[in-house]
Amino acid sequence: MIRLRLSLALSYEVNEPGSNFIFNIHAAHTNRQVVVDESLVVNQQVPLTVETDPTTGNRYLRLSAATGPLQIFYTASVDLTHYMAAPEQIAEVPVARLPAQVLGYIYPSRYCQSDRLYRLAMREFGQRQQGYGRVQAIRDWVAQRITYAKNISDSNSSAIDTLIETAGVCRDFAHLMIALCRASNIPARFTTGINYGVDPAYGPLDFHAYVEVYLVGGWYLFDPSGTAIPMGLVRFGTGRDAADVAFATIFGEVGSSPPVINIEAIAGADGLLVMPQLVRSALSTDGQHQGSP
Amino acid sequence: MIRLRLSLALSYEVNEPGSNFIFNIHAAHTNRQVVVDESLVVNQQVPLTVETDPTTGNRYLRLSAATGPLQIFYTASVDLTHYMAAPEQIAEVPVARLPAQVLGYIYPSRYCQSDRLYRLAMREFGQRQQGYGRVQAIRDWVAQRITYAKNISDSNSSAIDTLIETAGVCRDFAHLMIALCRASNIPARFTTGINYGVDPAYGPLDFHAYVEVYLVGGWYLFDPSGTAIPMGLVRFGTGRDAADVAFATIFGEVGSSPPVINIEAIAGADGLLVMPQLVRSALSTDGQHQGSP
Amino acid sequence: MIRLRLSLALSYEVNEPGSNFIFNIHAAHTNRQVVVDESLVVNQQVPLTVETDPTTGNRYLRLSAATGPLQIFYTASVDLTHYMAAPEQIAEVPVARLPAQVLGYIYPSRYCQSDRLYRLAMREFGQRQQGYGRVQAIRDWVAQRITYAKNISDSNSSAIDTLIETAGVCRDFAHLMIALCRASNIPARFTTGINYGVDPAYGPLDFHAYVEVYLVGGWYLFDPSGTAIPMGLVRFGTGRDAADVAFATIFGEVGSSPPVINIEAIAGADGLLVMPQLVRSALSTDGQHQGSP
Amino acid sequence: MIRLRLSLALSYEVNEPGSNFIFNIHAAHTNRQVVVDESLVVNQQVPLTVETDPTTGNRYLRLSAATGPLQIFYTASVDLTHYMAAPEQIAEVPVARLPAQVLGYIYPSRYCQSDRLYRLAMREFGQRQQGYGRVQAIRDWVAQRITYAKNISDSNSSAIDTLIETAGVCRDFAHLMIALCRASNIPARFTTGINYGVDPAYGPLDFHAYVEVYLVGGWYLFDPSGTAIPMGLVRFGTGRDAADVAFATIFGEVGSSPPVINIEAIAGADGLLVMPQLVRSALSTDGQHQGSP
């Protein structure tokens, strides 16, 4: 069990009264990711609602802000009890046996146009043995061909843009890996959160985007950008792609500053400090399916 | 109350053993669309499963077929009790009050890239009075600018392609209308089904795609292609866009013939024959929200 | 006759030895645009070549720079003797009579995808009376629908992007107008230069992009962005689109600063100072075709 | 010296009087491709003009047709005296020494968006030794990744589409190879013609598209689709991409049938029959530059 303590501060300048915000900045509730304690402070005295989506565990904070500064402070301590499995023992789930609620994750979405990548995926990955290893091969293919670079992509960039431009940030790596998994008929989803253990070379800590892939046992973690240790990821939200799980969706004229984020490993309930580390095992933090990750 | 009787026959030639099919060809179950009787016949002796998605009411038929001909016959009698409302009394739901499960329908999706159309939508519809009338204006804008034409668009075509090419089929009209609604922060979804009352000029009856828009009271029907009478639509599936609700998703090498579809109005339980007609009222067949359409 | 005096200063930091530059920053030579005097100063002692393209009159300065600062100063006095004609008397040239060297300007190019806009152009402009007035209608259509805005478009943006995003800079206005002209079978080309008389609200003076359209009599000037007085335009280069006439094409690792540009009207050889002004007449500065603009 | 005899028959049904046609179906005139004899027969009694573009040697047949059938028959005997060179002795021309009239072929064009492929080209080919071998490597990269397939691409398809879809016809192979050459700062152009020696597996003989690349000595032939013997290519036209050199550009409502094309090797003036064959040498049929191919 790993206990991580995270804090984040968001700052906005609201120029239009009644601007609406939908945040997805709460650590998700899953069987294997337990929020031990948390606090939320908002500088404006406005009504707040926090809803939990029953299917994904995503939590949405919604508020309507007055003009002037809006500041959000969130802190949480989160216990992660990863499901771990040996990669070579994890098989793919045949399409015929995919649960209905997972089917949506093999279809194309806004930034993951898998419908245009079937031939490419077949050519590159079609002959590989099915299973976790094939997904790892997709992840490595993306990691090798795409260069981490800011200022190449923007919020409209999609998996196809990334394939062409061969550069992007974590969001772009994730979109391309997801599109290639789906083009191979393997369900994949976009996940956001905060990650422990990022190389400071990547600049100030920011929200992170990574990938979860559905194989026998449940949804497994992959970080195609290679910027994080998968074991150190705290999940906020999952969705079809970045369109579904922006950390902030804003309706109104609002200026914003970069978020200020911190995360550290702390001692757990048993007094032991366990650090996230890079492991060979497949990891999952999803606890919705019985007897599974 | 309207009772419609529909039948459809699908024919495939399966060239790869174990090809998997996911069909969405069953009339959906909603409070206001009741399936009175139905039958499904498949020529191959293979296991069939039919699942109902609890959130949408979509029903999915899944099977794995042997090589050779595969034929699916489906017939159903469906009772429609539309919720009807006066257009001028239907308001938009402010973003701040949208239910969490509706939020996904204001985000962009594969074929509805609303994220690139905010300025266009603001320019064209931003000054209009909010409410059903504004949605009707979006529907009319699409209907006026896009020409119904086969062989211009294909399965990769998106709302942006349709805006540029100014031509397409019902699927393309629906995608563009949805994208413009979402760009105006109005939730909209893609709906498929069979429609009664199509002008024979459009050729043999085919599956139809139309739009449902979320306003106060629930999801209202719009047919931007203008090829159908909204009152005559029998719903099969709803989703973010065509990526979610193909009538058939096929995994394997399979040839296909055009579907053969029929629909007629018949006498209901009370012995009365009521024909769908074009009405000025707003219509909804969605019955999931209490005291609403 | 109008005499304009312009100066421009370009500053680069060359990080890779032997970086190659191709500049198109010399005022073009045409019968109606005469360069009275000019000077070119380059801070580095490197060989310079200036070539004139015989078909377009574009002049290309080429050099290979050493590492360190590279500074280019160019000044010129240019006499403009516009061909002027009454708009209502200018007809279109039927495709069958277009000169061979003009044909290339009805074909699509990198940023002007006229091949995808035929139906839109036919719908919007197909019923209009042919002639200068129809081109003016295309120009006005673009000017009305597109908003001048920096930071929306970038160097990859095309006419289709601008149509969708409905915002851009002078380059984007020009590309969209050109694409719509070509989709209407009217030859149009992309022209760059410096313009006298820009509203200071648009920020520091920069290179300008506008449109020349081929009609009976030759190539006529249009400024769809509305930021300039067409009579005050000094032409540097013309081409199919921005791909052909970048003011600087750089091969190597080079940093750059914004150009510093000035232009003013001065007294001509006859001692008279004539100011460019907004006129109703059609204008042309192209002098390649006998007895024509 | 190789002598090839070709014939082609084009059939149209003209539905709109005065429909205009621009054909590029005449064998080009170059120093190394000499048209020994030719004939052109058109079934309609309409004025014909044939113009030769002085820069490219392309010949354009223009006519305005009456309603009803339009049939064009063209036959020619062409002598090819290829310039041949050893691949390992052919260097690239540094950008700084590219002739002005060649510069346009390093810029992006409608279907060859080299501006988006710089990073990909640098990654794949940036470390290779410059020269003919590098261009051959680009050609082979395209040939290996793209599958020849009809009905995947259409007339709007570009190099980027082909890179994504990984399938297409000769036109698509050519566009992708051109884009990658230009992204590597190597001038490349699109060439059309008829090719001797096509494997009948590709179906009835059709117009062919291939690539010419500018290296020391001139423009060298490459056939990335691998469907033809480069030595058997008879050139009709060259341009930036398919936008410039359609074999027929039609203005008006016109139906068309597939062309009927034949080509054979025949005895030359010396009575010798020389067959085109696959050779290791670099080939060029361009004779515009003194002492060069």
Automatic annotation (TrEMBL), chains A, B, C, D:
Q: Which Pfam families match?
A: Bact_transglu_N_2, Transglut_core
Q: Which residues form the Transglutaminase-like domain?
A: 162-226
Note the superkingdom of the native organism: Bacteria
Query: PANTHER family from the xrefs?
Result: BLL5557 PROTEIN, BLR5614 PROTEIN-RELATED
The protein, known as: Transglutaminase domain-containing protein
Annotated organism of origin: Acidithiobacillus ferrivorans
